[in-house]
């Protein structure tokens, strides 16, 4: 995770555009990171809003794949977000997301965050998506996709 | 089986916490019921699921923006019910010809 730039996903493990699912990994920073200075002193745990954002970014990569990077998803709604257990510094998050519904201009996903086999949180997320508003954002997302190992061949097969 | 309007009205009442008896066939979802675009996403999700369709919201919005349609055609609830019936009929016709 690069919290300073809000890039929470580190690696795409598996993208299945036929099943409309994605699995990613995210590496929680060590206890020395400033985010834990206030959350909480002497008892560092990952903020739930960042776990929710990680689920949103995971879903976002799935939607980008399904729209072949022609549309940019923006988080619009979070439902039933449940923080089921504390997430400690240095943890590896495994995040699964799947499509629940593809509407006209919007997509609903469900996502789960696990550490090992333990379910830490889950939510249902709704995104609006629109054609990329400018070329710069598309270039940025392409670079991000390369950084986290987005499997471009999955789209040519899909 | 309840009418399409009844189903839509129930979805709106539940999704937006609007008293069911205030939702009429002649109600305009935006102007009369005060439903905003985010709530309408939720309603669209529920309607798509309930009727097994994909309401073409982007196409409708474009038509309104281009002056080719009025919001009343899509957002007055009886009209919305008629559009949904058309979408369901088109889906069923497509399924019939494919089998």
TrEMBL record, chain B:
InterPro entries: ACP-like_sf (IPR036736), PP-bd_ACP (IPR009081), Ppantetheine_attach_site (IPR006162). SUPFAM superfamilies: ACP-like. Residues 2-88 form the Carrier domain. Signal peptide: none annotated. Keywords: Phosphopantetheine, Phosphoprotein. The keyword Phosphoprotein applies. Gene3D superfamilies: ACP-like (1.10.1200.10). This is Acyl carrier protein. It comes from Bradyrhizobium macuxiense.
């Amino acid at each position: 995770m690069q919290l300073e730039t809000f890039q929470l996903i580190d690696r795409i493990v598996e993208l299945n555009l036929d099943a409309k699912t994605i699995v990613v990994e995210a590496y929680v920073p060590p206890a020395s990171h400033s985010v834990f200075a206030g959350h909480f002193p002497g008892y560092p745990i990952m903020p739930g809003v960042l776990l929710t954002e990680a689920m949103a970014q995971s879903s976002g990569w799935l939607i980008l794949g399904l729209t072949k990077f022609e549309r940019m998803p923006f988080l619009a709604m979070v439902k039933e977000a449940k923080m089921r257990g504390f997430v400690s510094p240095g943890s590896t998050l495994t995040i699964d997301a799947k499509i629940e519904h593809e509407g006209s201009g919007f997509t609903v996903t469900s996502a789960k965050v696990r550490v090992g086999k333990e379910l830490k949180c889950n939510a249902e997320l709704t995104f609006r998506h629109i054609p990329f508003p400018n070329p710069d954002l598309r270039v940025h997302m392409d670079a991000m996709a390369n950084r986290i190992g987005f499997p471009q061949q999955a789209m040519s097969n899909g | 089986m309840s009418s399409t309007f009844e189903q839509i009205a129930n979805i709106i009442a539940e999704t937006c916490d609007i008293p069911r008896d205030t939702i009429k066939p002649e109600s305009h979802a935006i102007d009369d019921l005060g439903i905003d675009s985010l709530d309408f996403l939720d309603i669209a999700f529920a309607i798509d699921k309930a009727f097994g369709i994909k309401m073409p919201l982007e196409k409708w919005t474009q038509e309104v923006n281009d002056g080719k349609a009025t919001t009343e055609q899509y957002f007055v609830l009886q009209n919305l019910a008629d559009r949904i019936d058309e979408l369901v009929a088109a889906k069923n016709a497509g399924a019939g010809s494919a089998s």
